[in-house]
Inverse folding.
């Protein structure tokens, strides 16, 4: 398989990322149509297009590269996981949850379109994610089923939705590091880890590689949240594209409030090291894009 050939040349990560982002943006624009009734399509496209780091799709595509997996399945999986992420943000920003007015540098969907249409846009994006994973041809049925199961598990009660429920129930409470890690492993980490595992599932990695990639995804998922907590107190809203200081204002437990700023920053670096160690143990010859993404997650400024 292509992904298992010996690799000697360094990766031009910027060029790789531009290519992959082009594929993802083109796919999202094609699959999130504007013709849904009563303005629903406009709200869906507003929620998904023209913004976002696209980290989850990039993880899918980087893992697919590492195992030499199927391109069509990986692109569909990349776009599907981004649709789940986008739907979660639409709902998370609503007044009944985090009540935020700024996302990706622009008004949130419920501010722009009203709460009812925002709720329906999130519902439709979630459904569309699974439609993308089940085309009539081009992706083997067994692979379709595995990808759907991985995404559903990461998005549901044992993943993102469960973590969000814990988050809402934890406002004003003190959590131990174990409790905070568990919450973020579900709320943020599950979908990031699933992105890696879904990319690998577009190929046929051996047990060693599959386990190592899952460990990489777990470390990166937690690192992402630790860095998010750090940025919430060190950057302004214009840089972040969302309301800065929101966690502290809402009295939510964070890694910074629990550990302090310097310790949280050190913990993010420790998790980056764990991610790199997992890649080194994978037995795969080309994990350059995954390694670069781990560095990008920990060293980002927004």
């Amino acid at each position: 398989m292509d992904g298992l050939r010996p690799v000697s040349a360094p990766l031009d990560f910027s060029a790789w990322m531009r290519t992959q982002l082009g594929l993802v943006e083109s796919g999202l624009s094609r699959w999130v149509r504007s013709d849904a009734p009563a303005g629903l399509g406009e709200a869906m496209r507003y929620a998904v297009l023209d913004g976002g780091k696209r980290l989850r799709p990039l993880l899918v595509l980087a893992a697919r590269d590492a195992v030499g997996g199927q391109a069509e399945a990986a692109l569909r999986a990349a776009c599907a996981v981004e649709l789940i992420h986008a739907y979660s943000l639409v709902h998370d920003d609503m007044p009944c949850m985090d009540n935020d007015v700024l996302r990706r540098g622009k008004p949130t969907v419920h501010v722009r379109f009203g709460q009812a249409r925002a709720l329906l846009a999130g519902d439709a994006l979630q459904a569309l994610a699974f439609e993308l994973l089940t085309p009539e041809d081009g992706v083997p049925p067994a692979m379709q089923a595995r990808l759907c199961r991985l995404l559903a598990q990461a998005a549901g009660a044992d993943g993102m939705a469960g973590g969000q429920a814990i988050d809402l129930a934890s406002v004003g409470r003190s959590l131990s590091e174990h409790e905070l890690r568990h919450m973020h492993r579900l709320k943020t980490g599950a979908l990031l880890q699933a992105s890696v595992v879904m990319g690998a599932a577009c190929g046929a990695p051996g047990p060693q590689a599959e386990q190592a990639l899952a460990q990489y995804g777990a470390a990166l998922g937690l690192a992402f949240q630790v860095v998010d907590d750090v940025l919430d107190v060190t950057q302004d809203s214009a840089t972040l594209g969302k309301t800065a200081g929101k966690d502290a204002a809402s009295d939510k437990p964070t890694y910074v409030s629990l550990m302090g700023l310097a310790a949280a920053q050190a913990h993010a670096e420790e998790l980056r090291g764990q991610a790199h160690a997992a890649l080194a143990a994978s037995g795969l010859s080309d994990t350059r894009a995954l390694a670069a993404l781990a560095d990008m997650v920990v060293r980002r400024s927004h």
In short: Residues 207-234 form the longest helix (28 residues). The two ends are 36 Å apart (CA to CA).
